[in-house]
Amino acid sequence: MAPTPFVFVEEKKDYAIVTINRGPVNAMNLQVWVELQAALDRIEGNSKMRGVIFCSGLEKDIFTAGNDLTELYAPMTSLEGYTNFWTTQNVFVGNLYSSRLVVISAIRGACPAGGCAISLASDYRIMTAGLGHIGLNEPQIGLLVPALWMVLYAKVIGERQAELLGFNGAVISPEEAKRVGLVDELVPKEKLMQTAEATMAKWLKIPSLGRSLTKKNVRQELSDRFTDRAALKAESEMGWAFLSSPETVKAMKATLNRLQGSKL
């Protein structure tokens, strides 16, 4: 029996809406990342599709809660399992970053870690005003921010700002995110998808070829680093040494215990 899907694609005339819906908080396990890549492949494979909007299907105001920590907690996985997870998520982020599509993230509520990575790989980020938070928060729970995610962070908000936020695993308000350039626009919750679709229509007025080639020239080098599977395998081995260390296991166990029954 096939697993219950967590990622859903709705095709419009010339763009698609990708909805993530894995309750209770859209924790991103391997299946979510695999389905995100399959959705991107499907949309890019349709020549009529020129854009994609990512959003949450949860009733709660959570874009995603980031990676499912059970994929990172050494006693619950293995080097092989972690390598597969690490490779899958990074290849997707890299592919999204250089996609020919116009990529918009419609961020409702909380958007830490992996959700933030999706938004960083987008072309335009719209977030709910006064609702939620965003950032690469891994250090707050005893983890390290993936190296290329920090590079992408710095490209979006500048190196020093990325250091100040990333080293401390800070998550910031929508208003602060707008100030530092982490999001491009703030709107009321009830106007989020309306604004995202209106923005998509505006971007799609630009001829695709020139726009996509300009994007490729700017982004392909970093995208290639994200999708270098040999490098990702080596990184995952180093990452596993960190994740399986007694200090990290202890910190992760405390975090998992704290989050049991938590809303986020």
UniProtKB/TrEMBL annotation:
Q: Name one cellular component (GO) term.
A: mitochondrion
Q: Which GO terms describe its molecular function?
A: catalytic activity
Biological process (GO), any one: fatty acid beta-oxidation
Superkingdom classification of source: Eukaryota
Q: Which PANTHER family match?
A: ENOYL-COA DELTA ISOMERASE 1, MITOCHONDRIAL, ENOYL-COA HYDRATASE-RELATED
Name the family: Belongs to the enoyl-CoA hydratase/isomerase family.
Protein's UniProt name: Uncharacterized protein
